[in-house]
Amino acid sequence: MYRKQYRSPLGMITLNADGENLTAVCFEDGKDYGRYIQDGEERDLPIFDEAIQWLDQYFQGKDPGPIPRYKRNDMTPFRQEVIDELLKIPYGQTVTYRDLAKAICAKRGWKRMSAQAVGGAVGWNPICIMIPCHRVVGSNGSLIGYGGGIHNKLKLLALEGVDTSSYTIPKKGTAL
């Protein structure tokens, strides 16, 4: 396992890679940091160069396009399906957990699915920003569920030009 630090305008971000693929990208002050980031040798790698170039473009307020290669060994078919839907969310737009559930139901031919099940899979995402789970909001306009911290979710959406004035921040709960 290898690691690289990236200084973003929102704070330090740690990247992990297996040498060929990203395995985690997390804000150091986020709750997901201890969950996904592994100790590893600090090393310059082509995958880190790609990731840093992507992040530089992103933090300049530009859509950086396709994300660098990533790999997770604990990817279930359902998680992959949710990740595939997350990757379809356009830069500068948001969707709800309910929207994601409906999209998966349509693909599977189901009548309905729990938005909470989708939320659990979204919350599993170890590649923050690049796999844009920050673009998912509650159907009531609440900015819930971001492992990088609600403060960062709000800033990422604003960076993308999303009007965040109608969104609310929970006063308590696990989303904070």
UniProtKB/TrEMBL annotation:
Residues 1-63 form the Methylguanine DNA methyltransferase ribonuclease-like domain. It catalyses: a 4-O-methyl-thymidine in DNA + L-cysteinyl-[protein] = a thymidine in DNA + S-methyl-L-cysteinyl-[protein]; a 6-O-methyl-2'-deoxyguanosine in DNA + L-cysteinyl-[protein] = S-methyl-L-cysteinyl-[protein] + a 2'-deoxyguanosine in DNA. Keywords: DNA damage, DNA repair, Methyltransferase, Transferase. Gene3D superfamilies: Methylated DNA-protein cysteine methyltransferase domain, Winged helix-like DNA-binding domain superfamily/Winged helix DNA-binding domain. It comes from the Bacteria. Pfam families: DNA_binding_1, Methyltransf_1N. SUPFAM superfamilies: Methylated DNA-protein cysteine methyltransferase domain, Methylated DNA-protein cysteine methyltransferase, C-terminal domain. Transmembrane segments: none annotated. CDD domains: ATase. Residues 77-162 form the Methylated-DNA-[protein]-cysteine S-methyltransferase DNA binding domain. PANTHER family: METHYLATED-DNA--PROTEIN-CYSTEINE METHYLTRANSFERASE. This is Methylated-DNA--[protein]-cysteine S-methyltransferase. The lineage of its organism: Bacteria, Bacillati, Bacillota, Erysipelotrichia, Erysipelotrichales.
